[in-house]
Amino acid sequence: MFKNIVTDVFFDLDHTLWDFDRNSALTFEKILKANNIEVNLTDFLEVYKPLNLSFWKMYREERISKSELRYQRLKNTFDALSYSVSDEMIDILSEEYIQYLSSFNHLFPNTLSILEYLQPTYKLHIITNGFREIQDKKMKNAGIDMYFDQVVNSETAGVKKPNPIIFEVALAKANARPDTSLMIGDSLEADILGAIGVGLHALHFNPHNDAKHTHCAMIDDLRKIKTYL
Fold first, then answer.
1. CA 204, 131, 140 angle in degrees (round to 5)?
2. Calpha distance 71→53 (Å, rounded)
3. pLDDT value at position 209?
4. Coil, helix or strand for 225?
5. Which residue stretches of the chain are H helix?
6. Against a cut of 0.85, is the pTM above it?
7. Rounded Cα distance, 5 and 175, in Å
């Protein structure tokens, strides 16, 4: 579909190549135990995960700061579990979460094989809303940093996906044209609609069976990128 069109492929990182949910769960297991926080991990994650998504949406929309995101997602989780934690402990957990998150390096199935397949033919890049201080560590520790030519994060670009500016910055750094570029990501709002809005082709990685749409093709396994490239 894109074989004779695309020269540059832009990937999202978290939830697309790097298995954020799995690595995040392992991080919380480590830091909650280390700080003697006696909550059931499954119960904690069941509350935390949707709260984290909602606070990230507010962060993307510039409605809260990075520090507010880091504090509020934990504060609201503990409040919902009726577990009393001091602000000092929340700050400790927040710092340790960022410190240890990149030490876990699980990738989605077939990440390495699809990058090996694509790299000889296409220039590969990353566009991520993740925090600058840990995204590079995630990629290096997971052994995928060498596959990518340009890595653009929202803190460097000054805006977050789906803001068109971050895509324009990434295109400029990659010396790529939107009509010969493909964005692959898991977020319909941030990755797919953001990319389409500035003229990129898009492919929606949807491993969790989110609602179908007609904006672009959807895949549930990274191997299926071979159908399009």
1. 80
2. 14
3. 86
4. helix
5. 20-34, 41-60, 66-80, 87-101, 111-118, 132-141, 154-157, 164-174, 194-197
6. yes
7. 16
